[in-house]
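Weekly sync, protein design subgroup
Attendees: M.S., D.O., the rotation student, P.L. (late)

Item 1: inverse folding check
M.S. brought a backbone from last month's batch and wanted to see whether the design step gives back something sensible before we order anything. D.O. pointed out we never logged the input encoding, so this time it goes straight into the notes. Structure tokens as presented (319 positions):
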């Protein structure tokens, strides 16, 4: 496998990827940026996490993040730092609100509104249960295990092999692990896919920074579930394979402060609707003891093409 360019290699730890530099009271700058292989721009989860880290520094420690809503407006380049402008929208007795605008080359590429809350004790508690009969992380294979198998097949197309080889290298160098926990179908016929996530070698961070890390990993393998639900594959032969997949918006609702991204977390994802070149996915993140930590939603562009995917790969190689 060829060595990946520096901008295609994630930081060795997620905490490094999340951290930002403070330039002024409400102004922050990215320290590192990463673009996944053959992606259109910087990894969306990294932009989310850095925007959260910036907003959190502008909030009193008595308030804890409980929700965020953001839109991706333009693809970000890994070659130029992103500036995060924080607007202190509202200061309340129980809730406060922050708006973050991410700017690169003088253009707004991303906007986020996030809300923080003081803890309210002795309130009613309810959650959807964690899916039953889920294989433990030790019993599950890494998401790139199948790619490793395909690479060894003598009949695999060279361009597909090159793509998968770079994907394997990217996953092995990543600061977090992902394992495929399979899929299930609910009694109502809804199919959902499950993944185990864990950040590698992180210390016991405080809840505020754990939520930034969770924002980072929440964007991984999320909108891709829509493609899986539709049976769309970037390298499947016509008439149906994926030509573009990109995030439009992302939301997270946090309902627990006692979790550690260094432990395995189960991501349960479903796609309720896809149409008009768009798809929406919903996600739930559980700790291994079954606590529902956070709920997520995301909409993204998802387009298919009738072109032969190997022809598209050759066109990309010429760019």
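Designed sequence read out in the meeting:
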């Amino acid at each position: 496998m060829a060595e990946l360019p520096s901008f295609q290699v994630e930081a060795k730890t997620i905490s490094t990827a999340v951290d930002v530099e403070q330039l002024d009271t409400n102004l922050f700058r990215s320290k590192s940026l990463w673009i996944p292989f053959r992606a259109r721009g910087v990894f969306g989860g990294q932009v989310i996490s850095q925007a959260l880290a910036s907003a959190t520094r502008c909030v009193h420690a008595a308030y804890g993040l409980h929700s965020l809503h953001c839109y991706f407006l333009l693809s970000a380049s890994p070659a130029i730092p992103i500036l995060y402008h924080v607007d202190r929208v509202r200061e309340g007795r129980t809730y406060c609100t922050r708006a973050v605008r991410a700017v690169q080359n003088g253009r707004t590429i991303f906007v986020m509104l996030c809300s923080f809350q003081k803890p309210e004790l002795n309130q009613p508690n309810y959650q959807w249960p964690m899916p039953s009969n889920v294989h433990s992380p030790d019993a599950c294979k890494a998401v790139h295990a199948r790619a490793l198998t395909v690479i060894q097949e003598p009949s695999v197309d060279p361009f597909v092999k090159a793509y998968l080889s770079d994907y394997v290298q990217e996953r092995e160098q990543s600061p977090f692990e992902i394992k495929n926990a399979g899929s299930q179908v609910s009694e109502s016929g809804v199919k959902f896919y499950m993944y185990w996530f864990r950040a590698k070698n992180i210390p016991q961070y405080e809840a505020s920074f754990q939520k930034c890390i969770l924002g980072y990993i929440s964007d991984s393998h999320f909108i891709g579930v829509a493609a899986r639900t539709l049976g769309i594959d970037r390298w499947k032969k016509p008439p149906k394979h994926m030509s573009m997949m990109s995030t439009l918006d992302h939301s997270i609702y946090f309902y627990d402060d006692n979790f550690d991204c260094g432990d395995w977390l189960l991501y349960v994802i479903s796609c309720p609707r896809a149409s008009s070149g768009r798809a929406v996915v919903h996600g739930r993140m559980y700790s291994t003891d079954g606590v529902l930590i956070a709920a997520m939603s995301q909409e993204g562009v998802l387009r298919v093409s009738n072109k032969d995917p190997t022809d598209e790969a050759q066109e990309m190689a010429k760019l």
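Discussion: The chain has one domain: 7-120+140-318. Confidence is low (pLDDT under 50) at residues 312-319.
Action: P.L. to compare against the previous round before Friday.
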